[in-house]
Amino acid sequence: MIFETIKTEGLAHFSYFIGDQEAGLGAVIDPRRDIDIYLNLAWQNQVRISHILETHIHADFVSGSRELALATGAEIGVSAAGEYLFEHHSLREGDLLELGSLQLKVIHTPGHTPEHVCYLLSGGTGAETPWGLFSGDTLFAGEVGRPDLLGENTEEQLAHRLYHSLFKKLLPLGDEIIIYPAHGEGSPCGSQIGDRQTSTIGYERRYNPRLRARTEESFVAGVLDSLSPAPRYYSHVKQINACGPRVIGRLPHIPALTPEAFQQELDQPNTTIIDTREIEAFGGAHIDGALNIALREAFPIWAGWLLPPEERLLLVMADETDLDSIQRHLLRIDCKNLVGYLRQGMRGWIEAGRPFIQTDLLSVHELQEQVNRQPDALQLLDVRSDEEWQEGHIPTAQHRWLPALTENLAGLDPAKPTAVYCGSGYRSSMAASILQQKGFSRVYNIPGSMTAWKAAGYRLNNGTK
């Protein structure tokens, strides 16, 4: 038997490759858009990909099903309850899919979305009963799927359907069933997903706080109360996956641009520079108007939050070897208009005599001195979530949530020095770059931010804004 978990970094997305080598057959469940990893696994294991299966219409990443179907000739299996607008095979409750000695049974589990299905896995040497469940976004380690991505005020109805899918269909499968979810810790598809890639139904029954609800009403209330805002790109990606993503065939070539060519592209409408360097490097020197999203684990999620999907993108990188990773990250969330990258990065730009600006860095010690000495001289901005703000914030700070910052600049003075902080300095660097785009004259980022402030033992305020 072949069983591989493919983790997509940044999105905390899990897809799965399973197969029977003797039968020469394999299946991919919830594939991502860049499919070379699945083709390589098929070649390494000498199997043919015969099944491509989706658990639901995904909102957080662009599906690779159509890409994989064209490359392999395999059929795409999706829920019959979904409104898919591309060629597919409809799957219904109780349908059985054969992969040699392996068998997948379709279970319709509406709740996260109306069409959602799970796949119950059985077969393999020494396996006499079902033993695994590809649970998609219905059940995670420590969490359940969010029911609010459909919009149109359907979240309460879907939360009730989610309760029935979990308590009437999945929990009765047996405590020994291993759960293989579509997401892990860090995915916005669940607010409290645990840091384990797998779990069991028995463990979740005992310890998952959602499954310990005593009544359907308390379950629904708990799920709805836990919802955090969904990333802005989700609705766009969901629509793309329902219609069928454009097949790209291979990763497009992204040209290296001289400073002169880079400037010419920058002068075109609807163009944004994404500077993926670390916050200290960005602060030291960057091109005016650039948005800093450092190439860390959360890069694609924040790119999805902050970038319009049709925007023309220019890249500034710390190292040109980062290009492959960045391109894959962006294609997975359908940011596809990568025009080019700056050859030799900021060094090439500066040596060509091009202008640059800086974002000043302010230590928490300097900030504390400023807050104590002249609290009104500095405009202090906290760009963390509402929950983080409520848990404690720096005295004199104002609160603006980063994803909504551009629309919530009222009450801030662009002419006044402004210092921005978050949890570590990562998000605040994004916010500082946005403020500079909007004409704020003197902007400081706080490296270490709240983590450093707490470590230094400085005072916090709690409660309301």
Summarize the structure.
This protein is an alpha/beta fold.
Question: Could you outline the blueprint of secondary structure elements for this entry?
Answer:
Layout: E1 2-8, E2 13-20, E3 25-29, H1 36-45, E4 48-53, H2 65-72, E5 75-79, E6 89-91, E7 96-99, E8 102-108, E9 117-123, E10 132-136, E11 139-140, E12 143-144, H3 155-170, E13 178-181, E14 199-200, H4 201-207, H5 216-225, H6 234-243, E15 256-257, H7 259-266, E16 271-275, H8 279-284, E17 291-292, H9 299-306, E18 312-316, H10 323-332, E19 338-342, H11 345-351, E20 360-361, H12 364-373, E21 379-382, H13 386-391, E22 398-399, E23 418-421, H14 426-437, E24 443-445, H15 449-455
Parallel strand pairs: 3-4, 4-5, 5-6, 10-13, 15-19, 16-17, 16-18, 18-19, 20-24, 21-22, 21-23, 23-24
Antiparallel strand pairs: 1-2, 2-3, 7-8, 8-9, 9-10, 11-12, 13-14
Helix pairs in contact: 3-5, 9-10
**CATH level-1 class of the largest domain:** Alpha Beta
Computed CA radius of gyration, to the nearest angstrom? 24 Å
How helix-rich are the residues, as a percent range?
25-40%
Q: What's the structural domain tally?
A: 3
Low-confidence stretches: none
In total, how many beta strands? 24
Q: Structural class, judged by helices and strands? A: alpha/beta
Shape descriptor reads globular
The CATH homologous superfamily name of the largest domain equals Ribonuclease Z/Hydroxyacylglutathione hydrolase-like
* CATH architect. name of the largest domain: 4-Layer Sandwich
Mean pLDDT: 95
Largest sheet: 6 strands, mixed
Strand order of the largest sheet: 1-2-3-4-5-6
Number of helices: 15
Percentage of residues in DSSP E strands:
15-25%
> Under CATH, the topology of the largest domain is which?
Metallo-beta-lactamase, Chain A
N-to-C terminal Cα separation, in Å? Answer: 56 Å
